[in-house]
Write a structure and sequence with these properties.
Helix content: 25-40%
Order of helices and strands: EEHHEHEEEEEEHHEHEHHEHEH
Radius of gyration: 20 Å
Mean pLDDT: 96
Largest sheet: 8 strands, antiparallel
Low-confidence stretches: none
Number of strands: 13
Distance between the termini: 52 Å
Structural class: alpha/beta
Length: 346
């Protein structure tokens, strides 16, 4: 039997909408921060800016089948995260309302390129489509292939005007979700119907001034979330780096809401009381920083106790006692969502 014809499209052209890459229109790269900033980015931030966490392709289509071709910057290499999360794409579909999960790319994780069947419906349907990019790998090229008579259209508009920008650590970047759609930033994107730009960097979310300038260069920010405690580390560093970073951001975005969540608890706190005590000290420090900004007249900065994101048996929400499972990310999104809705008046 002859294989049905497939027409291949680049998501860089209409009617597709690319999100999560705020400099794509000017630079044409699947990259989270500008490739040509007027300052030298920290090495970890520079390298991981090529990781495509939070990237999305959105469109509406009448179609039956969809395939995906990807050329990556490297193969799967992580020993505590599935390759489907590190290097894979997944797809969400909806006739109306919030898109629901449909499928994940399947591929040989030893390879840096692959082709995978993503959607195979019994008959053509008209659907809103969201394709999520890999969380911990760079993408050189991606193509979407459809049955020859598919009709492609622009997606429905977002409910939130502007971008939610999240700066942070390996957990915020998506470690260690089983697939991209389960990173908490992508869960929030679906639930809030908003573009969420993930500018988190594994081990490198250390609040350097250069990173602050890079983040504040993103346009059209509706909400900024500063979730970097786990990488900043020492109490004294939180005390100095947090205010500096936030003041740099505020210089360019004086009225943008800011949310400062504290670190989630780690499993070892159960038997290491010193770890818990330090986390609690740093939590109160961040609360005090937020209150200081508010005392200075900044009424649009908000605090969130990260411990509330992990209700109950918090140690069960991690792969390695630190990085979240899909369940952990779901719990985090459930905790963030009402707070964000309250700040944005949704």
């Amino acid at each position: 039997m002859e294989k049905p014809a497939v027409r291949w499209y680049s998501p860089t052209t209409a009617p597709f909408v690319l999100e999560g890459f705020p400099f794509f229109k000017s630079e044409g790269l699947y990259r989270r921060l500008s490739v040509n900033p007027p300052y030298v980015l920290p090495a970890g931030v520079e390298g991981q800016s090529w990781h495509t966490a939070g990237g999305q392709i959105r469109f509406r289509a009448t179609f039956r089948t969809m395939r995906l071709r990807a050329a990556l910057m490297g193969p799967g290499t992580m020993d505590h995260m599935p390759a489907t999360g590190q290097c894979g794409f997944d797809v969400y579909l909806a006739e109306t309302g919030t898109p629901r999960y449909y499928g994940t790319a399947r591929f040989d994780p030893r390879q840096d390129h692959y082709e995978s069947a993503m959607v195979d419906l019994p008959e053509p349907r008209t659907l809103e489509v969201v394709v999520n990019f890999p969380l911990y790998q760079g993408v050189r090229e991606v193509l979407l292939g459809f049955d020859a008579d598919a009709v492609l259209e622009a997606p429905s508009p977002r409910a939130v005007a502007g971008r939610i920008v999240v700066y942070g650590t390996s957990i915020t970047q998506g470690g260690c979700a089983s697939r991209p759609g389960m990173a908490y930033t992508n869960i929030l994107s679906r639930r809030l119907n908003a573009e969420v730009v993930n500018v988190a960097f594994s081990g490198a979310g250390q609040c350097e001034p250069e990173a602050a300038y890079a983040v504040r260069d993103i346009d059209d920010i509706a909400l900024y979330i500063h979730d970097a405690e786990a990488n900043v580390g020492a109490y004294e560093d939180v005390a100095s780096r947090y205010p500096r970073f936030l003041r740099i951001f505020r210089e360019k975005h004086p009225d943008t809401p800011i949310l400062v969540p504290t670190k989630i608890p780690y499993a070892k706190e159960l038997l290491h009381p010193d770890m818990r005590a330090l986390r609690l000290r740093k939590k109160e420090l961040q609360r005090a920083i937020v209150e200081q900004f508010r005392a200075e007249g900044d009424a649009n900065i908000h605090f969130l106790d990260g411990e509330t994101l992990y209700p109950g048996c918090f140690e069960e929400y991690a792969v390695d006692g630190v990085h979240a499972t899909d369940l952990g990310f779901l719990k985090m999104a459930e905790g963030f969502e009402p707070v964000i809705r309250g700040i944005l008046g949704l």
